[in-house]
Every structure is written in structure tokens, then in C-alpha cells.
């Protein structure tokens, strides 16, 4: 059932369709249907009616929740993080954009309050996450279609559940899909302190892989190094050390990585390529430096390196919801085993959204901002 529901503003004729996905001309299963009234309600949402700087585009709105239909699920949102993709979407420079006005947030966990008469896969009390991006998680309550939801165990930590469907999924797929790695093999990555980077460290350790983790130098570098090693990082080095370090001796004891994970671009990605094993692959999934990936001709001719890209939304489109559910269950199993935890998070009330957005965009941020409803 594909439904495109709307939000009616009493003061304008604007229509909000938070359930629409404009990727490849397809729309996602519908998000909630709301009508806004002049009287404030208990349902609040962070809404943007135009693209721009997030703190200027986002507003906290009072909304009225509509009735639950036969295949609908009333969800009370519990927690929702701020990811770089959320920021990019508000700015208007992401791979797909919801129709405006839209509710911010692509990830989060909620608890089922009530279900429609034809709902069979979830029940009141269950914890659920969203199967699709662009549905708007920065709100206190919502009505989603059943097919837009994935049930997750309610005995995992709240922060872990809220941050499960983007960064760890990206990390797992990149580790599994591009090179046939075996225990003892090594992986090199930049942006190792990011949400994806922390997930890569933990999942790689669970798979018996060794990680070489590159980070930007900072005043608290020793504290960061200790934190990443506590997650399972075997090596943590700065970008400057990677450029200056004589690594011949280093790679006598550590196999050259066959897989490099790039979220930065520019010089940082060039350094990752330089240390790849012959025939190795670099996967780019972000561009924090806003600079192109530059590879010398000799790397292609004499080392036969491969450059690939990864976007989780495209992977989900290609593989379908059932495969995504299997991936979520695999990650939940790692959580239950104590092998996967949430990235370092700072819990923020929804009302403090401006501060949270500013912090999320600040360089060297070591903690993911997460709205607690």
C-alpha cells in the first residue's frame, strides 16, 4: 500500500508530505498524516519549509495527530540522532530530497502505542525503527504504515536502537560486499571517529579483522586513541603521521590492507590509496573535506587498485526491505553479544534543536547529537 499523506497548516495552504522519497522517481511507504491546528497539541516536530542552513530552516511545530487506519501504526518516538545525511537533506544537497515542507530526521527508534485492525507484524509496546529514509523522525509521535516499520528488540540500549539503521548498516555492508576478507586481514579507514568509523572498528573486531584507523590530530588525541582502542581498534594514527611515517617496518607485521574506507576525500583519500595492497579496493561513502578523490595513474597501472562508492539508500533500493531486516537482525545479534554499541552520544531535548544542530555541524565533534523525546 503506497500512501502519500499530508500535513495541513491552518495559516497556509502548504502541504507536507514527509513520506515521499524522490529517489529514482519512487515514493516510500507513507509517513504519518497530520493536520495542524491553531491550538498547540502534544505532538511536536522539527519542520523545514525551505532548504538552507539547518538552524535557520528548521522550526519546532505543534501538530495534531490523525486517527489510525487499518494498516497504520501509532508510534511514540523515543530517540532520534542527527546524522550528516540529515544535515545535507535540510541543506538541499543530498541524493534524494522529500517534498517541502518536510520533517527532519531519517533514523530513530519509537515504541508502538496502537495499531490498526489489519496490522499483524507489530503490537503495542514493541520497539520499531524505520525501514526507509525521508519519513521524518524528529518528532514526538507519528502514524506510519506497517510496512515502513521494522521491529527491534526492546532489551538493547536506547541509543544503540536509535542509531542502528544507518551507520552500522553502512559499516557492515562495506566490510562484507567489496573484498572477501578473512580473519587476520587488515582494513584502513579515515574518519575513524565518525559513527560509521566506530561501527567499522567494532564489526571488524567481531569478524577477526585488524583496523588501521586514521584520524585528524586534535588536542585530546590521546583520549580519542584510548576510546577507539577500547572499541577494538588495533592501530590509531593521525593523518600527519600517515604521511610522514615510514611504514615499511609497520607492514612487516601487519598485512597491507585490501580494503580502504574513505569518508573524507582529498589528500586523506590519496594516502589511503597509497597504502592499499595491490588489487585492493577503496570504497568512498562520504566527502567531509569537500575535495575530489585523486589517484595517480601509477596506482591503477602498477597496483591495479579499484575505486568504488557506497550509498546505503541505494543498497536498500536494490535489495529490498526483507534483506534490510536481515541486516538489522544480524546487527542486533552483535549487540546482544556485546560486540556492537552506539557511538558516543549526547542526549538533547527536542526543544534544544538549535544547539544540537550547531554542535552536530561543528568540526572535531566527538559525540553524536541524539534527540530524546
Automatic annotation (TrEMBL):
UniProt xrefs under InterPro entries: ADH-like_C, ADH-like_N, ER, GroES-like_sf, Mito_Enoyl-ACP_Reductase, NAD(P)-bd_dom_sf
Any coiled-coil regions, as ranges: 221-248
SUPFAM superfamilies attached to this UniProt entry: GroES-like (SSF50129), NAD(P)-binding Rossmann-fold domains (SSF51735)
Gene3D superfamilies: Medium-chain alcohol dehydrogenases, catalytic domain, NAD(P)-binding Rossmann-like Domain
Domain Enoyl reductase (ER) span(s) in chain numbering: 53-373
GO terms of molecular function: enoyl-[acyl-carrier-protein] reductase (NADPH) activity
Domain of life: Eukaryota
Location of the protein in the cell: Mitochondrion
A Gene Ontology term for the protein's cellular component: membrane
Role: Catalyzes the NADPH-dependent reduction of trans-2-enoyl thioesters in mitochondrial fatty acid synthesis (fatty acid synthesis type II). Fatty acid chain elongation in mitochondria uses acyl carrier protein (ACP) as an acyl group carrier, but the enzyme accepts both ACP and CoA thioesters as substrates in vitro. Displays a preference for medium-chain over short- and long-chain substrates. May provide the octanoyl chain used for lipoic acid biosynthesis, regulating protein lipoylation and mitochondrial respiratory activity particularly in Purkinje cells.
Protein name: Enoyl-[acyl-carrier-protein] reductase, mitochondrial
Gene that specifies this protein: MECR
Amino acid at each position: 500500500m503506497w500512501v502519500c499523506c499530508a500535513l495541513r497548516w491552518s495559516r497556509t495552504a502548504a502541504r507536507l508530505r514527509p513520506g515521499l522519497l524522490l529517489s529514482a522517481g519512487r515514493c516510500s511507504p507513507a509517513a504519518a498524516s497530520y493536520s495542524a491546528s491553531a491550538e498547540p497539541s502534544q505532538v511536536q516536530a522539527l519542520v523545514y519549509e525551505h532548504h538552507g542552513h539547518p538552524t535557520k530552516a528548521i522550526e519546532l511545530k505543534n501538530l495534531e495527530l490523525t486517527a489510525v487506519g487499518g494498516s497504520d501504526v501509532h508510534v511514540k518516538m523515543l530517540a532520534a540522532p542527527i546524522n550528516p545525511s540529515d544535515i545535507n537533506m535540510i541543506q538541499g544537497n543530498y541524493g534524494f530530497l522529500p517534498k517541502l515542507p518536510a520533517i527532519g530526521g531519517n533514523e530513530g527508534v519509537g515504541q508502538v502505542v496502537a495499531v490498526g485492525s489489519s496490522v499483524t507484524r507489530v503490537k503495542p509496546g514493541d520497539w520499531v525503527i524505520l525501514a526507509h529514509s525521508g519519513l521524518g523522525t524528529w518528532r514526538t509521535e507519528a502514524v506510519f504504515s506497517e510496512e515502513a516499520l521494522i521491529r527491534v528488540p526492546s532489551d538493547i540500549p536506547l541509543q544503540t536502537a536509535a542509531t542502528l539503521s544507518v551507520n552500522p548498516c553502512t559499516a557492515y555492508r562495506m566490510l562484507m560486499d567489496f573484498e572477501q576478507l578473512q580473519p587476520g586481514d587488515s582494513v584502513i579507514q579515515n574518519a575513524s571517529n565518525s559513527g560509521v568509523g566506530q561501527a567499522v572498528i567494532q564489526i571488524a573486531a567481531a569478524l577477526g579483522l585488524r583496523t588501521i584507523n586514521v584520524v585528524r590530530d586534535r588536542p585530546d588525541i590521546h583520549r580519542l586513541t584510548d576510546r577507539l582502542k577500547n572499541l577494538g581498534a588495533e592501530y590509531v594514527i593521525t593523518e600527519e603521521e600517515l604521511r610522514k611515517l615510514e611504514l615499511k617496518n609497520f607492514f612487516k607485521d601487519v598485512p597491507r590492507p585490501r580494503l580502504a574506507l574513505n569518508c573524507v576525500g582529498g589528500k586523506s583519500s590519496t594516502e589511503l590509496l597509497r597504502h592499499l595492497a595491490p588489487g585492493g579496493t577503496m570504497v568512498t561513502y562520504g566527502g567531509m573535506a569537500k575535495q575530489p578523490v585523486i589517484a595517480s595513474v601509477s596506482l591503477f597501472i602498477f597496483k591495479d587498485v579499484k575505486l568504488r562508492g557506497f550509498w546505503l539508500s541505494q543498497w536498500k533500493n536494490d535489495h529490498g526491505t526483507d534483506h534490510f531486516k536481515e541486516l538489522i537482525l544480524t546487527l542486533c545479534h552483535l549487540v546482544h553479544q556485546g560486540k556492537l554499541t552506539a557511538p558516543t552520544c549526547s542526549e538533547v531535548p527536542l526543544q534544544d534543536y538549535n544547539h544540537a544542530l550547531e554542535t552536530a555541524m561543528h568540526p572535531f565533534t566527538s559525540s553524536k547529537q541524539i534527540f530524546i523525546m
